[in-house]
């Protein structure tokens, strides 16, 4: 038996949907040569990460082992798979491989962060392969909700690993290659040691529907619309954008793309040859002059993002265009959990304008980009792997997916971020736990999720804040009275007197009562002032604010 | 023609789901005698209202007109209908009327806020009526998701108004009176001038299902569960709690209620005679000693609330009870939009424990308490009103409901909060807009939504904060250097030096360069310091923090 092993180590994406980063390694324990699959981001929210710009997986482990890293492979161009590449390339310094469309997006990510775009290598689809240390990696076209998504065939001395990436089985994906069972059969033929498989839709019991099933309903909706019709979807879902645009043209409408991402994605797809026969579009300036019944806008902002085109339109004029009574707004999309409030804000704003809003609640205008349970099971059957490793999903999804594997007799493992799994033998084995977590991009700085910076912001947001300044003279006597500044607190409470004055009076009272021992000890002074400030606030307004005390001693 | 009129004025609940407060008036314009129907709250969130405890409708208009207010009627005991009564009673000072179960909850709300509970009057169901100025009001039992919900029959000199309250048509509601078409026919017989009608589920195209349809599936699930089974639902849904408890007993399990609201609601329902034959329950102390396969917990926290029993169990031990592999957790509930993240946090935490989580995604374990579109239309047909006023819903729901009315030839109006509608004639007419909005309960203080207090908290949460102090001596010269305190900001940025030091150096540089004109002018000093602090922060960390400057002048 060899003393080398094949390992799998998710650093992000296993136990969550977002910020994917999966490491594979082969070699002697602790000396495995490594590859990284995907390097994505996840998005912050006001609940847990106010003020944060992006969330990355903690890449410390890989950075510390970067001398062992052979290459980085990106399966597709969604932010949760490629969004971190520019931010971490300098820490990792390995060549990046992806297909052409993805490469165009990765190049942009590198460039934005000042990295040399030459490190991004566009490669062809399977059977073309890239050699990376002990690995030979090929990109197998899969259908998803962005062009040129790929599963990876990763050949290792310990056998073949199939890493599905995000995928669905689609016989008619509108853009890109249809699902090809023959091709996958070929891939499975030599035997698959491990199938590392998308889990996102394991909870969906029915077979997934094809992107190609949408045109009839969409065409009908667009044909029957009376005023202007505005459609939103993810800009990266180029197939959907094309289906929508085609529906517009079929109804005799001019199509206008609104929102930077929308225009960019279509342009990249055309440039890279992914998208053919996209209809002629008009600019917003041209659109303004067209009769609204002969116009279709395709816009960004399907998730209710405040700055995207849909939200701008819901607040009034955007690039000269406005919506009004008799217009139709279509969400050709699903609301990601957590985004409901933002989406409903837009829907209700349109309702106030008299705009009819249509969404996918009837199941007509959107299909998912992920394989549902029966499709995942079809993939298991097709690959017939020795080991199943569910990835890309919240814990409940990974667990359900592993159960589905076990039910068929495939040894499966729930491996969350940080679990190093030995895939060499007949059973997956968790051999080590690597420290992992989240890194925040905050403005231009990377900070650790546990650094306390964001915790302090949340505390102020919940409790408000009081700043107290006190000047002590050369004789350790207070010079004047303590001064308070309030942030995020009501002006008055129970006694109907200004809260700031009551707080200053309480602070002054404390200082007056304090003996020399306290007055000469900054810690005691601070602690005492903090206590009386909080006490006064609790009595007056029923809240315990955060308190910062600054004592200036003249010497 | 009379110079008196019948008006309807929603102050809350029209254009949102939450904080219901509907005013009716009859009399000469501007002198109408008034009644208030419901006085509810809505709940804050981190996105828009961090740190806020409760949200009320702005009751200023009614307070200013309280000499015209005859009475307050509460349709049912949900927080969004009764939650504000204790907080505003002192401003309104009118007798409160409701049915017995609701009265028990209203009494508690009054008592908690130090109001005399004698103002709450429990009254019987229709045909009993309460006279209030020109109004005669009766409580007609309807089904909903809390006992003794009522529609109101409001007889006025201008005809009969039917205010549905929250309702559904349920032939078998488990607890309380079944829908009685004969009774409603009687009510419609004299003619209904206006139907003011729940709109919550207008978007749901299929007929609603009965509470009584749930036991088969629930009984099966509980009977087949292997370890402990834990169920959550809204505590106030006493019928559901009973169905769950009955299912537990049928499966030979002891039932334990967990969470204060759960125990309280069941106790109130038993005390008021609403709930009969509720199974014997065991205490948590007794439950700990029982074998888990013969135990069922019914717990609070169906919306993922952090402090409720379900969240506590998902984090570990709660009152000695823990969940583990082989146990089942059932959400017999629907997640309210906006609560998804909190619910998923719990689901995934249970998944990590190996607990099987079951929810209503298959449509088996929950029914809504609101009438769906076909049921609303049945109500329209039954009441045959001259005017339809959709209420209780977001704008999109009110609009859709009004469209449904118009489609049948019933004059309808979308009347959002603040719209005073004249219901006297054959058509509803908006005759005035009253200023309205939201009032926050923040700690123990009521503040206006536009006071800026919460805005300031959000700004700090997003941007962080710098607090700068500067002491100027008697000669208007700086005494020492400016001092900075940072809150919610990274310790260092681009130059890898402590941010606080860089900010202090920049502030000092500004002071050194400042001429006498600036040094003697607090406004210019503050403005200049704020500018250099922000500039340094932007360069170093790419963020523009909030800045507070305190200048102390020794005199």
Automatic annotation (TrEMBL), chains A, B:
- Per the database record, which ranges form the Metallo-beta-lactamase domain? 18-218
Which PROSITE patterns does the record cross-reference, listed alphabetically?
A: UPF0036 (PS01292)
Q: Molecular function (GO) terms listed?
A: exonuclease activity; metal ion binding; RNA binding
Xref: InterPro entries? Metallo-B-lactamas (IPR001279), RibonucZ/Hydroxyglut_hydro (IPR036866), RMMBL (IPR011108), RNase_J_2 (IPR042173), RNase_J_b_CASP (IPR055132), RNase_J_C (IPR041636), RNase_J_CS (IPR001587)
In terms of Gene3D superfamilies, this protein maps to:
3.10.20.580, Metallo-hydrolase/oxidoreductase (3.40.50.10710), Ribonuclease Z/Hydroxyacylglutathione hydrolase-like (3.60.15.10)
Q: Which SMART domains match?
A: Lactamase_B
Q: Does the keyword Lipid metabolism apply?
A: no
One protein family per Pfam: RNase_J_C
At the top level, the lineage of the source is Bacteria
Record keywords:
Exonuclease, Hydrolase, Metal-binding, Nuclease, RNA-binding, Zinc
| UniProt-recorded name of the protein | Ribonuclease J
What organism is the protein native to?
A: Vannielia litorea
